[in-house]
Amino acid sequence: MHNFYIVFMLWVRVMFAEPIF
């Protein structure tokens, strides 16, 4: 389930960071 943690961190960065796309 370590991959889930990585995806979660990426999702948090997308939510709290400026729109990348």
From TrEMBL:
Lineage top rank: taxon: Eukaryota
Protein name per Swiss-Prot or TrEMBL: Uncharacterized protein
Organism: Plasmodium yoelii yoelii
Source lineage: Eukaryota, Sar, Alveolata, Apicomplexa, Aconoidasida
